[in-house]
């Protein structure tokens, strides 16, 4: 083959790319023709599809070539000549972030658990005192917001004898009411035992006592209330995660606790 033939073969390579381009353009015009509105109903469908496409692709790239920049150049806020950064009309399709939906579910279920606690778990003396909002953590059972859900906190002084890991017999009814309410929501729960820094005088160390108390509640949830074993886990942290100072009796009382963490899968 001569050099002239090689040059002619190399020069025909653009035909493949040109054919691909024409095929893509043809497909695009066929789709556009299929979206041609015949009436009001079809026009709304076209607008809906258009809004969805714009919403899907309306994302600013991390970096834009300097010769294409016409606006701010901060990462995530750069703009180029074919991108309009402000929406002038209300979008037809409203996108809800999943995190917002989960947050609403958490708030709803958390309030349901709080009502169960107020109506069935709290002592009459607690209910009649009209406690202040900032004093809610001193209650025997309380609910608190968490980063991945919420936490039901059980103070050990209300549920256990000193140095014991079994819940008091008279308080098992409260644990049953709480467990039934949690089971209705079907969430994954993590039960954590905590102590203060004062060494135990009995047969268990702080590590052992915290783990045993969490395990007792976990086994109760599974064996007595029918929780799925793969939806419950227990752990003991001793004094490693205090929520108050260990230098005062009141702080140590708050640190001696069992927490039932209700987790939500994103």
From TrEMBL:
UniProt xrefs under CDD domains: OmpA_C-like
Membrane spanning stretches: 14-35
Keywords on record: Cell membrane, Membrane, Transmembrane, Transmembrane helix
Residue ranges of every copy of the OmpA-like domain listed in the record: 147-266
Pfam families per the UniProt record, alphabetical: MotB_plug, OmpA
Keyword Membrane (UniProt): yes
Location in or out of the cell: Cell membrane
UniProt cross-references to Gene3D superfamilies, sorted A to Z: OmpA-like domain
Signal peptide: none
Membrane-related topology note: Single-pass membrane protein
GO cellular component: plasma membrane
The family this protein is said to belong to: Belongs to the MotB family.
Listed name of the protein: Chemotaxis protein MotB
Organism: Pseudobacteriovorax antillogorgiicola
Organism lineage: Bacteria, Pseudomonadati, Bdellovibrionota, Oligoflexia, Oligoflexales
């Amino acid at each position: 083959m001569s050099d002239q033939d090689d040059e002619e073969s190399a020069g025909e390579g653009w035909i493949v790319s040109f054919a691909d381009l024409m095929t893509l353009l043809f497909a695009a015009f066929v789709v556009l023709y299929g979206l041609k509105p015949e009436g009001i109903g079809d026009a709304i469908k076209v607008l809906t599809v258009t809004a969805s496409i714009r919403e899907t692709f309306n994302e600013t790239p991390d970096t834009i070539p300097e010769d294409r920049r016409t606006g701010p150049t901060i990462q995530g806020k750069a703009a180029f000549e074919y991108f309009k950064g402000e929406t002038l009309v209300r979008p037809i399709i409203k996108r809800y972030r999943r995190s917002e939906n989960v947050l609403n579910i958490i708030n709803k279920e958390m309030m349901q658990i709080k009502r169960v606690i107020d109506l069935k778990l709290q002592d009459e003396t607690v209910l009649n005192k009209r406690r202040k909002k900032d004093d809610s953590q001193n209650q025997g059972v309380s609910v608190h917001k968490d980063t991945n859900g919420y936490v039901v906190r059980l103070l050990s002084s209300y549920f256990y004898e000193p140095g014991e890991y079994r819940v008091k017999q008279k308080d098992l009814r409260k644990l049953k009411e709480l467990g039934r309410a949690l089971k209705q929501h079907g969430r994954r729960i993590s039960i954590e035992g905590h102590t203060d820094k004062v060494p135990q005088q009995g047969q268990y160390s702080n590590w052992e006592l915290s783990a045993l108390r969490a395990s007792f509640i976990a086994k109760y949830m599974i064996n007595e209330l029918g929780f799925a074993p793969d939806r419950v886990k227990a752990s003991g942290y001793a004094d490693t995660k205090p929520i108050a100072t260990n230098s005062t009796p009141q702080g140590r009382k708050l640190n001696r606790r069992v927490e039932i963490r209700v987790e939500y899968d994103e």
